[in-house]
Amino acid sequence: MDKKYILVKDTRRAGSNQTEHFAGLLAAKIQASPAAEAVQVVRAADIGFYDQGLVLKFLPGGPVYLNVSEADLDRVVRETVVGGRVLEDLAAAGTARQLRVVLRNCGVINPENLEEYIRRDGYRALSRALFEYTPDKVIEEFKKSGLRGRGGAGYPTWLKWHLTRSVPGAEKYVICNADEGDPGAYMDRSILEGDPHSVLEGMIIAGYAIGANHGYFYIRAEYPLAIERIGKAIEQARERGLLGTGILGSDFNFEVDIRLGAGAFVCGEETALIASIEGKRGTPRPRPPYPSVSGLWGKPTSINNVETFANVPVVMTRGGDWFAGIGTEKSKGTKVFAVTGKVKNSGLVEVPMGVTLRQIVFDIGGGVRSGKKIKAVQTGGPSGGVIPEDRLDTPVDYENLQKLGSIMGSGGMIVMDEDDCMVDIAKFYLGFCVEESCGKCAPCRIGTYQLLKILERISEGEGRSEDLDRLRLIAQAMQKASLCGLGQTASNPVLSTLNYFETEYREHIQAKRCRSFKCRDLLTYSIIQSKCKRCRQCFLNCPVQAISGDREVGFYIQLDKCIKCGKCFEVCKFNAIARE
Amino acid sequence: MVRATINGKVVEVEKGTTILDAANQVQVKIPTLCKHPDLISSAACGICIVKVKGSSKMLRACCTPLDNAMEIITHDPEIVSIRRTVLELILSKHPNDCLKCGRNNNCELQRLAADFGIREELFPKYLKDIPKDESTGSIVLEPPKCILCGRCVQVCQQMQDVWALSFLERGFDTRISPAGDIKLGDSPCVRCGQCSAHCPTGAIFEQDDTARVWEALQKPGNYCVVQIAPAVRVSIGEAFGFKPGENFTRRLYALLRRLGFAAVFDTNFGADVTIIEEASEFVERFKNPSPERPLPLITTCCPSWVDFMEKFHHDMIPHFSSCKSPHQILGVLSKTYYASKYNLDPARIVMVSIMPCTAKKYEITRTDEMFASGFQDIDIVLTTRELARMIKQAGVDFPALPDEDPDHILGDYTGAGVIFGATGGVMEAALRTACFYITGQKLDRLEFSETRGLKGVKESSIEIAGNRVGIAVAHGLSNVEYVLNQVREAVKAGRPVPYHFVEVMACPGGCVGGGGQPYGVTDERRSKMSRGLYEDDLNQPIRSSHENPQVQQLYREFLGEPRSEKSESLLHVHYKARPQYRK
C-alpha cells in the first residue's frame, strides 16, 4: 500500500516560522496513534496557500486544512489521520471544487520511479489498448470521451487521430507538444516533471491508435528537469518492454525521441514546431495540408499537447463515458490552470470544465490578495484576453471564453485588481508578441510592432484621438490576415481591453490620467504640506534629488527633475505625498 | 474536379487548384504581393485574403486549394479594407523613396499602392538603417527595401540550391542576409541574379554599370565595341511594351550604333567559335576518353554554373569543357584578331557585353585567364535591364529604328549560335557540329528536340554513325545534383557513364530566364523567348557553327586549327576547387 503523507507549512506572513514546531508535534502525535506506520509528516517549502496560518495537506487526494491551531492537532490525528474523516470546519473550501484527473499522480508518486506509477494503474491503459482494443476502437473511445486538445484550440483529439490514421502510408509520427510558452503558465512543465510516464503512456497509445511507430517529445530547453525526467521515463519504459519492438509482447512497435526547442513561442504552433524538428527555421507554413496529411518529414503526423496526453491513460482505464460525464456539453473533462497574479493562493488548480471563473478565483484562489476589488481575469496568455469582473460567473469552457473575446489557451489565468492598468496589460502582452513574432508574415510582424508603439504612446501621455480607431484597424487586419494562430490572436489582449475598458483608454488619451497609477509618465507627485511632518524621508530617498527644501521651510518636489519613480510615495509614512 | 462558386459564379477546377487560380477562370483577379508563379506560396504578405461563406476566418487565396461547395467572396468592403491596412503596414516598413529607386515604375509594391490609392502614410515609419551590400559586384542587396516576401530565399535555396540567402533575426528585425551575417560576396552566392529577377521591390537589383558605359562612350580615344547575347534580342522588347519572344536583333544593332559604339558584334558569333572548340573537345573525348579527360563532357558557358561547380562539385572538374564562354571569346578575339586586322590599339578598345546575366559581371575578372591577351577580354557587362534604361536615357525611339546589320568580322552568326540562349541550345548546337566532326558528313537532321523544353532535367540518347551518345541537359542549379550523381554512381559502380555530354545552365530556362532579364519571368515567358530564338535559328541560312564563313575565316587567318596552341591560350581556361560550406 502507498504511504500517506501530510505536508505541513506555517503560512503566516508575520511572526516566526513555526513549521518545524508544528511538524514535530504532529509527528509525535501520529507516532503515538495506530496510524504510526502508514503516515509520514513532511515539511513543505511551499504549499500553495499563503497567510492561512498552519496549513496541512493530506496526500494523496486528501483534504487541505487551513488555520489549524495547536489545539486542533489531536482532533486532526484522531478523525482524519486514523479515522479518514474530513473536518469540515478546517477544510479549505476550494479543494472540494478541484478534481484531479491530469494531476492525479503529481506530487503523489516519485516521478522517477516507474514502479510507483505502475502501482497507481500506470500502463494498464496501454495494455488494455493493445490487447482489448483495435486502433479504431481506441479512437471510438476517445470520440465518446469528448476529449479536446488542451493546447488551446480545443480540436477534438479523436478527430485528429482519426484523420491521421485515415491517411494512407506506413510511416507516421506522433509529436508531444511541450513547448509551453505563455508567460506565467507552467501546467505542462508540472505534468512532465511530476508524472512523466502518464504523458509517455498517452503518447504510445496515440501511436497505436493512428498507426505510428515513432514519436517525438518537443520540449523547450528551458525545462531541464522535465527533459531529464522524460528521458528517464523513456529509458525505464524501454527496459520494461513498454517501448521498442513488440511492446508488452504485442506486435506493436513504438520508439520515442526527444527534441529540444530553443524557446521560440511560435514553435508551439504545429507547423513551426515541425519545421523546428526538421532542423529548419521555426516559422509556420500555410495549412492545408494539415500535419495529419503532411506533417513531419512530409508524413502524416498527430501533434498533441502534454496535458492532452496526460488525459489519455485515464480515458482508456476509466472509459470514455466516465470522462464525458465530467464537464460541460461541449467541453469534457477537467482543465489545469496556472492561477497567478493578484490572487491569494496562486498555483496550479485542476477543475472540471464548467466551473466559473469566480469559483476558481475566490473559492479556490481565496480571492484578491490585496483585498482590493477584482478588475478582471486574463486567460489564454498573449493570445487571450481579459474578462471583466461582471463576466466572472461565466462557466469556463472553450466556447464561452471565445465568446468573451478570450481563449482557453493552455491554461494561464492571471487575476487583476484595481492596481492593474488595462493599457499597461495590453502593452505587456503586445511586447511579448513583438518579441515572439517569427517575422514571416507582414500583418503580425509589422502589426504587433505598430500596435505596441501606439500603446506606448498612449501610456506616455502622447495618445491621440484617432489612436483607438487605429488600434482596432490594425487588430482586425492581424486577426484576418495573419498566417498562424499567433498572429491571428496577438491582438486579442488589445481588443478585449479596448472592448471592456475603453474608458480607461480614453482617460489616458484625453485626461492624460492612469487610474491605476501604472503609467508613470502620466503621474504627478506633490507634497501635501498640511500632512507633511518634515521627516525628510522623501528628501533622503529621492534618487535624483528632485526634492528640495529643509525642515524649516518644508519640502517640495521639482517636477522638471522628478522621474516619477514613486520612491517618495512609498517611503512617506504620513500619506503626505499626493499622486495623481 | 471540384465545384464551387467564386463571387456567385460557378467554377469547376481540378482538385488542388488554388482559389487564386480558380478565380482567374471567372475573370477575377485577386491582388497578390508575395506570390510568384515560379515558387511555392510562402503566404507571407496576407494581401490575397478572401472570405469563405460560413467561416469567420479569411483564407489566403494563393495557397488554399478550392474545395467542393465553397462559396468564396473575393472582394467586399471588409476584405478591401483589411488588404489596404496590411498594405499600409508593409509600407510603414519600407522607405518609400520611389523616385530614387531602381524599381521606380516597375515595382510590384508600388503598383499595389497605386491600385489601392494610397495617398498618405497612415502609420509612422520605423525603419532600420542597414547598409547596402555591394560586395558581389553583380548583385546589390538593399535590405531596408525588402518586404520579406521570401521569394529570393526560396529561389536561392530551393530553385538554385545555393543557400547564400536566408532570413536572419526574428520578428520586426527579420531581414534577408547571407547566413552568419557575412557579405554576399563571401557567401556561397554564385551571382546568378535569380533573386534580383524575382524580387518584387528594389531590395535586390543588378549592380548598375550604365554610368561606366556612358563614360567610356564619350571618352576621346576610346574605341567602344559592343556585343549582344542571344537571349537579349528576344527580351529587350518587353521594356518597350512588346511581347516576350519578339526578335529585335537588327534593331539592336542600329540602336547600339546610335548609342555611339564603334563596332557592333554579336555574341552568337562567339557562340559559334565556342561550338568549334567544344565540339572538338567532345569528339576527342568521345573517341578516346581518359581519366584526365573523361566523359561526359560538361558545358561551361554559364559562369554561375562554373562558380557553383568550383564551390560544391569540384570532383567533376576533369569533366569540364575548358572552353571560355561565348562573350569572353568574342572579347579576346576583338582585342587580338580584330584589333590586328583593323590596326587598332587593343589598349583603347573598350569591350561592352549586353547580357541577360548578372554573373557575367563577375565572370570578366574571374581569373587571370580572362586577361589572356594581355588585356581584359571584356571591360563592362550590362544586363538587359540596364540596356533598357540606357535606351530610355538616350532618348532613342527604339521600336521605330530601322534594321541594320552587325559589323564584320565578328558579327555574322549561324542558327546554332542563337539557340545558346535557351536551355538545351548549347547541346543542340554542339551536336550539329560534333556529328559532322564524327561522321565527316552533313547531317540529315539539324534539330534535336530532345534537348528543348522546360523540363528540369532532359535525358536522352541519340545515334551518331551507329554510336549511342547519351546526353543530359539540366537548368536551374537544383537540377544539377541529380545529373552529377548519375555519373558519380556509374563511375563508382564501374558501369559505363549514362551520359557522354551534359549541358548545365544555372537559370531555369537557360539564359532567356537569366537573372538580368526584364522582371516578371515565368515559364510562359521563358518558353515564348525560347521560341523566339528557335524561330531565329530556322530563319538562318546557315544553321551549323562550323559552316559560318566568318568563323572559317577566323581559323584560317588567325587561330589555325580548333584547339590549336593559340586557341588554347586565348580561348581556354582551367578550373580549381574552391570548396565552400553550404546549408
From TrEMBL, chain A:
This is NADP-reducing hydrogenase subunit HndC. It comes from the Bacteria. Transmembrane segments: none annotated. Its EC number is 1.12.1.3. Residues 523-552, 553-580 form the 4Fe-4S ferredoxin-type domain. Keywords: 4Fe-4S, Iron, Iron-sulfur, Metal-binding, Oxidoreductase. GO terms for molecular function: 4 iron, 4 sulfur cluster binding; FMN binding; hydrogen dehydrogenase (NADP+) activity; metal ion binding; NADH dehydrogenase (ubiquinone) activity. Belongs to the complex I 51 kDa subunit family.
UniProtKB/TrEMBL annotation, chain B:
Its EC number is 1.12.1.3. The keyword 4Fe-4S applies. GO terms for molecular function: 4 iron, 4 sulfur cluster binding; ferredoxin hydrogenase activity; hydrogen dehydrogenase (NADP+) activity; iron ion binding. InterPro entries: 2Fe-2S_ferredoxin-like_sf, 2Fe-2S_ferredoxin-type, 4Fe4S_Fe-S-bd, 4Fe4S_Fe_S_CS, Cytosolic_Fe-S_CAF, Fe_hydrogenase, Fe_hydrogenase_lsu_C, Fe_hydrogenase_ssu. Keywords: 4Fe-4S, Iron, Iron-sulfur, Metal-binding, Oxidoreductase, Repeat. PANTHER family: NITRATE, FORMATE, IRON DEHYDROGENASE. This is NADP-reducing hydrogenase subunit HndC. It comes from candidate division TA06 bacterium ADurb.Bin417. The gene is hndD_1.
